[in-house]
Write a structure and sequence with these properties.
By secondary structure, the protein is α+β, with helices and mostly antiparallel strands. About 40% of the residues lie in helices and about 20% in strands. It starts with 11 loop residues before the first helix and ends with a strand.
Length: about 260
């Protein structure tokens, strides 16, 4: 049987070599692109590291159990614009004036995740289907009272007394603000999570009054729900406020017992 030998045309071997080189280059590029990025040995600047390490709120701190419901840690900013009430010299009409200051304190708060989860925990874990879970949230009225406390304690523009003898609602307001500034102890009745009391305990006067009141300001939290008082005391610990004892809580942490933890 005769065999036929095919002779490649001139320049075919050079073209094949060029094609092989091109394929090798493409393969190398593909491998480079598929490789993971190199890790730099240079450390990140402190500002970038601190920003990355900043915690986000709310963050879970407990999945819950028989003793306590699921809990989170939250940060609540209390911000209030400084203002005062002035009386016009001619018309005696009172109007609100801005004193140009903004006061702020951030309160760290231990609270249940939400009211629905709290009610389910009370009903199914503690068998308290008639329990009131309303203490487990921050109500708008609590925020308003906290802003008033912050503005009254730290504000630089004292309220002027009313022209009358102070027997009306305006007189009660002025006396409340003066009492907040002058006293070293406050009682929050039906405190819930204790936002207003925490604001009072965490806000100090400026200047000489700051040193005068530091370490002597106390708060008594009162609530029928022992778990609310435990949340308030845990929040005090997060904010660096020393806590005293809790009175009136029944054994086992249930029921409607009252309590009075003193915050020093």
């Amino acid at each position: 049987m005769a065999t036929t030998e095919h002779t490649p045309p001139p320049g075919a071997s050079a073209a094949a070599a060029t094609t092989a080189r091109r394929l090798a280059i493409v393969l190398v590029l593909a491998l480079v692109l598929a490789a993971p990025p190199a890790v730099s040995s240079l450390s990140s600047p402190p500002s970038a590291m601190s920003a990355a390490a900043a915690p986000s709120y709310p963050r879970p701190i407990s999945a819950g159990g028989y003793a306590f419901p699921p809990m989170v840690e939250d940060r609540l900013p209390i911000v209030s614009a400084g203002n005062c009430i002035r009386a016009d010299g001619d018309t005696k009409q009172r109007h609100l004036e801005d004193d140009g200051e903004t006061y702020r304190t951030d309160v760290l708060l231990v609270r249940p995740t939400d009211m629905e989860t709290l009610w389910e925990w009370l009903a199914y874990t503690k068998s308290r289907t008639d329990a009131d879970p309303s203490w487990g949230r921050v109500w708008p009225t609590a925020l308003s009272l906290s802003r008033l406390v912050l503005r009254s304690v730290c504000g630089g523009c004292p309220p002027e007394p009313p022209a009358a003898d102070g027997g009306g609602s305006g007189g009660i307001f002025y006396r409340s603000v003066r009492s907040l500034r002058a006293s070293c102890h406050a009682v929050e009745l039906g405190c819930g999570l204790g936002v207003a009391g925490l604001t009072y305990a965490a806000s100090y006067m400026d200047g000489d009054q700051r040193q005068q009141y530091r370490g002597r300001r106390t708060v008594t939290f009162l609530d029928r729900e022992p778990h609310a008082l435990h949340c308030a005391m845990s929040s005090c610990a997060l904010n660096g406020v020393a806590t005293g004892g809790m009175d009136g809580a029944p054994a086992g942490g249930g029921g409607d017992g009252g309590g009075a933890p003193k915050i020093v």
